[in-house]
Amino acid sequence: FDWCGGTPLVFRESTTKRVQSTQDGVAQAVFMWWDLVMDMEGQVTLSCAPHWAHASSPQNMPWRDHWMQAIYYFPREVSVARGEELTLAAYHDEYSLWFNLHKDISSYDPNMESPICTCYLHVSCSRTRIGSINNSARNQKYLEALREHMTPDSVCLCLGDGNLLGIAASNMGASKVYCVERNSLTFRIMQEFVECNRLQDKVMVVSSVDHLDNDILNKVTVVFGEPHFFAALLPWQNIHFWYLKDKLSPMLPNNVVLMPRGATLWAMPVEFEHLWKIRAPLHLVEGFSMTHFDKLIEVSVSRN
Hints:
The protein is α/β, with parallel strands linked by helices. The protein has helices spanning 121-124, 127-133, 136-147, 165-171, 184-196, 214-217, 240-248, 291-303; strands at 13-20, 25-32, 35-37, 45-47, 70-80, 85-92, 97-102, 155-159, 176-180, 203-206, 222-224, 257-259, 284-285, 288-289. Helix content is 23%, strand content 23%.
C-alpha cells in the first residue's frame, strides 16, 4: 500500500501466491503481520513481525505494547500432504483482510466476498468468549452440575449474557426455563436458538429480571449461570451474578438451588520486562519535544 500518493490506493483487490506444504496435516488459518516503512529512504521500518521473522536480531527488537500478529481462518479446513503445491489467496477491501487456500488454481475466485458475520454471535462475542463456548471439557463440567438438579418439575432461571446453559437445561427435561439476556445482540441470538430447537413452549428469553413477576419467581427451583457478562472487562466483574441473585433472593423460594454457590479469587505477582514503558516520559522523539505529552502522562500516573 503506497500512502505517499505515488500510486492510487485500490479499495478492493485480491492476489495469489503459490506455496508448498512442509508437512502432512490440515491447513486452518493464516498467521500474518505487517511492516510499515516510515521514510522515503526506507531506513526506518516499524514491524509487528514475530522475533523469528524480524529484520533485526531479537535482542535489538523494539518493544511493542499493542501491535501484534494476526490470525485469519480459512472458510474451510484444507487437508494437505507434504510437498503439495497450493494456492494461497489474499483479499482486502477498505476495512479488512481475508484469505482462502486452494488445491486447484481453477477454484480461485477473485471476487470472493468477505466473511461478514450475519449470525450476530461473532459480532457480540470476543474471540476469548467464542473459545470458551467451544471448550468441551469446560462445557462438560457445567452440564454434569446441571444434571444433578434437573427433573421434569424443575423451573430454571438462567442469569448471564450469551448463556447456552438455559437451552441445555431444557433439553435435560426442565419444565420451564427463563433466560435473562440483557444484551440486545445475545437476546436475538438466544431467541434464534430457542426457535431453531423448537423450545418456544419451554424456554422464555427476557431482557431484564424486572420482566419476571413474583408468581414466576416463586416457582423457580434452580438459579444458575456460568457466570458471564459482556460488560465485565475483568474476570472478577462477572461476580455481578451474585448481585443479581441477591436482588432476586426475597422473591425466590428458600430451598432454591444456586449454581455456582461461591467464588474464589486467585492472584499472583507477575513481572513484565517492558510494561513500565507505557507510563515512561518520552522526552525527545526523532528530534521532536514530547514535553506536553510527558506532562499528560505524569498527571495520569499521579491519579492512579
